[in-house]
Every structure is written in C-alpha cells, then in structure tokens.
Design goal:
By secondary structure, the protein is an alpha/beta fold. It has eleven helices and 13 strands.
Length: 360
C-alpha cells in the first residue's frame, strides 16, 4: 500500500507516545497490537505511518533531529530507548502565535520569533519537498490562532488535517466550508482517549439516560502532571476545552442539563503525576418513585497511551479520504474519534457509520 507521509506540529508528549508506541510494536512483533480500533484499516497497518516533517517552537527541539527531540524535556514519554528511523528529520520552527501559555513558558523556552510570512514560506517549502499528505496537530490547548494558521497551511498545500486539539476547525461551519471548497479532508476536533475521562463519562451518562433514570447533576474533574495540565492552569485558555468536553456529555442526554448542574473539565496540575491522568466523575439522579441514586468513578490512565492509538486510526482514516477524493469534515471518523465533531452521534451509532465508511 505504500507509506502514509505525515507531518506533525507539536513535538510534545502526545507525539512522543504515538511514535514510541509504533516503535514498541516494531521491536516486539510477537506482541498483539492493542490500543487501535483495527490493526489494519483499508490495507494500512500502524507501521505505514511515516513522519517526514516536524514543527515546534521549543528551543530544545527546533533544529534538533526528531529522534532526539521526542525525548527532550519537558517530554516524559520514554517507552523505548531510541527512534533510529527519525534521525534524518530535523524539527523546523513553527510560528509561536498563541501556542505558549503563561505557565508553560516556565517549562518551554521558545526560539526567537521570525516574521510569520518568512516562517510560512519555509513551512510550505518543507511540506512540498517532503511530499506530506497529512498534518497532525498536537498544538496546546488554547492555541486557537496557531491552529488556524496550520489549518490554512493545509488548505494551501492540499493536506488532510487531523486536529487533535479543542480549537474548532472541523466543527466550525466556516472552516468546514473552506476545506470542502478546497477539496481537502479534515478529521476533528479534540481527540477522545481510548478509555478516557470523557468517553467513560458520556457512556455512563447515556446508560443512565437510556435506562430511564433522571440525571440531575454530574461532574468530571481531571488532574495530571504534564505540560498539557500545566498549560490548562491558565483559565483563559480553557474555554474551548470545556465546551468540547461538556458538549460531548450533553449530546448523549435526551434532555440537556442546566449549565449550573454540569461541570466537565481539567481541575489542576500536580507535577509528580507526570503523564498519569486521574479522573473523578459523579452522576446524581432519581429513579422509580423519585428514589435518589448516585455513582462515582475514579479512572487512572497514562494520558499519552490513551490518545495515541486513536490518532493512529484518525491518520489512516484521513488517508482513505484522500484516496477517495473526499473533502471537508469526515463525519464518521470525527464522530467516533473526536469529542467535538461537526455532528454528534452516540458511540455505537458512530462506530457503525465508521465501519461503513471503512468498507466504502
């Protein structure tokens, strides 16, 4: 089938977890591949992704070989000792824009800014030179201007866009129309973890709703210790993240909860947790004869392992869209893999639609 030539913007923990996981399975061919929807999708395996270009703003990564950059601080993922396949790729500079928040500045030293138009020219040349087909965005939460910059890059070069972050592109009607008119596919927005906080919360909320109970209040709070959670201490950058996570849960209920009765979002940064993410969820409601009930769930996961396999699927599904000359938001892939897709579905419905999409 050939390789799927990819570029990444944001050489952080998420990307490190993705590529180190692929390397792990390469080094352990006897291991069953877990953590993906299908080991093979439309003929493409997890080993068919080839990252040929990378962009970042951190001085510890820009200008360095990608094989070294994925291990550079503040990245915490060290699942395999080396990534020899990426020694020929140099991380190039991305425009900073709003990509580095106030708290993250303490962990990330950005390279001196160049004029955006100068960087854009360099980026376009690199993407064309490397014949990139798909761009994966791992930009930080709150980087709305940076996300729009890279979305426009995809339109200019005709690259499929996989938007893993809660800056709305696929689910924004104006941007969706731009991708449709340009003949470019997009999968987004805001990646769901494989067994993450939001997928567990929305599944249990729908279960309670479908079984006839009346949900009255619910919350989901998350804590972690990597730079994602450090950046999310800045409340001003959290607006789209809270919208994405809250709407993902609300969309599963027959009757929306009042805003004051639902809270879904990151809560705090605890450094020693590193890549461990803790989720605490509670649902309160009433059943027969108005008798009250409640449930509480505690979930502990490695935040990067939880998302990497989903992105592996998203990239291969975007490749199918390119081959079939599809344009605009790929609704089945977005609904099943993302928290804030253009069209919300229940997870069983989205999975059924996605299987039909894969079969063509």
């Amino acid at each position: 089938m050939g390789k799927i030539k990819c570029a990444v913007v944001g050489v952080g923990n998420c990307f490190a977890g993705l590529v180190q996981g692929v390397e792990y399975y390469k080094q352990h061919p006897e291991q069953e591949v877990v953590g993906v929807m299908h080991p093979i999708i439309a003929g493409y395996s997890i080993h068919d992704l080839e990252f040929v270009a990378a962009f970042d703003v951190d001085s510890k990564k820009v200008g360095k070989k990608l094989s070294d950059a994925v291990y550079a601080d503040p990245n915490k993922v060290k699942w395999v000792p080396s990534l020899s396949s990426m020694k020929d790729i140099t991380v190039m500079q991305s425009p900073r824009l709003d990509g580095v928040g106030h708290y993250v500045e303490k962990a990330v030293t950005a390279v001196p800014d160049k004029p955006v138009e100068e960087l854009k020219k360099e980026i376009l040349e690199e993407l064309k030179k490397k014949k990139v087909e798909i761009l994966v965005s791992y930009l930080p939460v709150g980087a709305d201007k940076a996300t729009q910059f890279w979305a426009q890059i995809c339109l200019d070069v005709k690259l499929a866009f996989v938007n893993c972050m809660p800056s709305f592109i696929a689910s924004n009607p104006e941007w969706a129309e731009k991708f449709k008119k340009a003949g470019v596919p997009v999968v987004g927005d805001d990646i769901k973890g494989q067994v993450g906080a939001t997928i567990v919360h929305r599944t249990l909320a729908k279960l309670c709703d479908d079984r006839g109970t009346k949900i009255e209040k619910t919350y989901q709070i998350n804590v972690g210790g990597n730079t994602d959670f450090l950046g999310m201490k800045e409340q001003e950058r959290l607006q789209s993240k809270k919208i994405s996570k809250t709407e993902s849960v609300q969309s599963q209920l027959k009757q929306r909860l009042p805003e004051g009765n639902i809270y879904v979002g990151p809560s705090d940064f605890i450094p020693f947790l590193s890549n461990t993410k803790l989720m605490f969820m509670r649902i309160e409601g009433r059943m027969w004869a108005n008798i009250p009930y409640n449930m509480e769930v505690r979930l502990e996961v490695d935040d990067k392992a939880n998302s990497a396999g989903i992105v592996i699927d998203a990239v291969r599904l975007a490749k199918i869209a390119l081959e079939r000359k599809l344009a605009g938001p790929i609704e089945p892939a977005s609904a099943y893999l993302m928290k804030h897709p253009p069209k919300q579905m229940s997870d069983p419905e989205a999975r059924a639609e996605l299987e039909k999409y894969i079969r063509g």
